[in-house]
Amino acid sequence: MALVGNIRDFGLSDFLYLVDRGYKTGCLHLNRLDDSASLYFDRGKLITATRNSDRSTVIELLVGKGKLNESEGREALSVYQRNGSHPLSLKLIESNLISHDELQRVLQQHIEESVYILFGWPEGDFRFEQNQRPELTAPIMPVPLPVEHLIMEGVRRIDEWGRIKDRIPNTDMIVKFIDQPGDKAKGINLAADEWRVFARINGKDSLADIARKTNMTDFDVCRIVYGFLTAGLVDVLRQAPPVGIGGRAIPDAPRVKKSLVSRIINRIRGM
User: Fold this and answer.
1) Is 186 left (phi over 0), alpha (psi -120 to 50) or beta?
2) What are the pLDDT tens digits along the chain (271 aa)?
């Protein structure tokens, strides 16, 4: 029987911890308003995650990120469809279309970002289906990901988003240089990623545009721009359209109640 509940009563980090400690295999389905996600685990470790806004196959994901061209993608999928019985991700490595390390890096970054957003959900229905497996064409990581890192980084990001969102409420905000930087802007040394963002600021592109053009995450771009704001280098135009038209809202930190924790723990351990 599936385990069901709501993450306003039982936090996502708590659930991930129990899946890890219980060495569970299956899928955690999450639903909130018009958004949904599915997290697949193998013996307590995450192997892939999908959102309703992005359910790309591994081929579509790699082509979109420029790691395969469309011809290579079509050929690989055609060969796989004739005799594929293992995850397509592994076949791409065996075919020398991408290295093991590069595939792991690309898929892990994509999957981690999909999961970190979920930590900002203040509520949402969940359902854990024991032994449910992803499609073999999904972006399955060659090396499953321990959840400890996801928990620590997800919680850290929520804490940082809480500070950032006061000045950058969503990624539709336009960032521009101010005409006369204050004393805080003097003598600033920028790291490589900060220069990448700095070079894309033109007073026209939104934060989401900058993230896409630099191939960086929303979180990293907003964090860097928040630093520029604090240093007096830039300003953001607060004329964002309603959330849902374009930009992605910065999530509120979830409020977690512990009243159902014991009950959920006993259910998971008994599965």
Assistant:
1) beta
2) 678 889 888 888 888 988 888 999 999 999 998 899 999 999 999 999 998 878 889 999 999 888 999 999 999 888 888 877 889 999 999 999 999 999 999 999 999 988 998 988 889 999 999 999 999 999 999 999 999 888 988 888 888 888 888 889 889 999 999 886 655 555 567 888 999 999 999 999 999 999 989 988 888 999 999 988 888 889 998 754 444 444 555 565 454 444 455 655 566 656 6
* Burial of 136 per CB tally in 10 Å (0-12, 13-18, 19+): middle
β-pair partners for 27: 40, 129
Cβ-contact 158, 254 below 8 angstroms? yes
The burial of 166, by beta-carbon neighbours within 10 Å (0-12 exposed, 13-18 middle, 19 or more buried), is given as: exposed
Please report, to the nearest 10 degrees, the dihedral formed by the alpha carbons of residues 139, 144, 147, 150 taken in order: -50
* Residue partners of 152: CB distance under 8 A and separation at least 6: none
What whole-number distance in Å separates Cα of residue 75 and Cα of residue 65? 18
Angle between helices 100-118 and 218-231 in degrees, nearest 10: 70
Residue type at position 144: P
Count other C-beta atoms under 10 Å from residue 57's C-beta: 17
pTM over 0.90: no
Contact 249, 170 (CB under 8 A): yes
